[in-house]
Amino acid sequence: MRIVAIANQKGGVGKTTTAVNLGAALAELGRRVLIIDLDPQANATSSFGLQGVEDISLYEPLLGGALVTEKIFPTQREGLFIVPADLDLAGAEVEIARMPNHLTRLAETLKPLQEDETFDFVFLDCPPSLGILMSNALAAADELLTPIQCEYFALEGLVKIVRLVEQVRDSGANKRLELAGIVMTMFDGRTNLSEQVVAEVRQHFGERVYETVIPRSVRLSEAPSFGKSILEYAPSGAAAQAYRALAREFIQRHSPPAARALEAPEQ
Questions:
Q1: Mind listing the pLDDT tens digit for each residue in 131-147?
Q2: Is the pTM of this model over 0.85?
Q3: Closest by CA position to 246, among listed 26, 10, 16, 44
Q4: 110 near 3, Cβ under 8 Å?
Q5: What is the DSSP string of 74-86?
Q6: Which helix (H) or strand (E) holds 262?
Q7: Where are the domains of the chain?
Q8: Cβ(145)–Cβ(181) under 8 Å?
Q9: In whole angstroms, what is the distance from residue 238 CA to residue 223 CA?
Q10: Residues 187, 198: contact at Cβ < 8 Å?
């Protein structure tokens, strides 16, 4: 099982959109995926039409009052599950901050998942802030996947994320954490700016940047209001195809070297 924090301290960059749709695309390819909604705004939760769910969040497990396995909810897509979020999580930030193990509460909460190996990937959909919940996600994750909007300030935001990863490692909370992937989102091929931003990010971060870019799409914005991923809402559209391509690339990156060699196309 691989725990992937999907995080960016900046809001509106396609973080939850990527968690939901990459998760759906991986499930379509036969992987078992769990999305843990760590944002009190519960956008990932409402993306699956579960906004009416109460008392099924990570609040109790984080405080030691329940097991995370008791809060897992199935979605309409086979192989894709979610631990929903609610406003109680905002209060959890305050309560966790008072605990002696305040940086590792989430890591300890997720141990039952690691023991039973039910899931191939666990995605931690983080809030757009540098608070306790995001810090806990980084302390619990094997790697960080960062969606970056194709805009002028993209590199500035990435520099802050790199520093945050270094701080988490240096603190001893999670020495294995790495910025393993950067996904360029809201790409508009009609503008020079999008092309320039992608080229500049690739120049600085090299292979950590996924080849697949996610296009700007009205359909992506509409899908959550119907409680669907883009794969159900507009399955043949450009955005759905992009997330399917991203899922294939994601799997290839997480395959053992021998398997990667077998999957590589012949020259």
A1: 889 999 999 999 999 99
A2: yes
A3: 26
A4: yes
A5: E-SSTTEEEE---
A6: helix 257-263
A7: 2-263
A8: yes
A9: 14
A10: yes
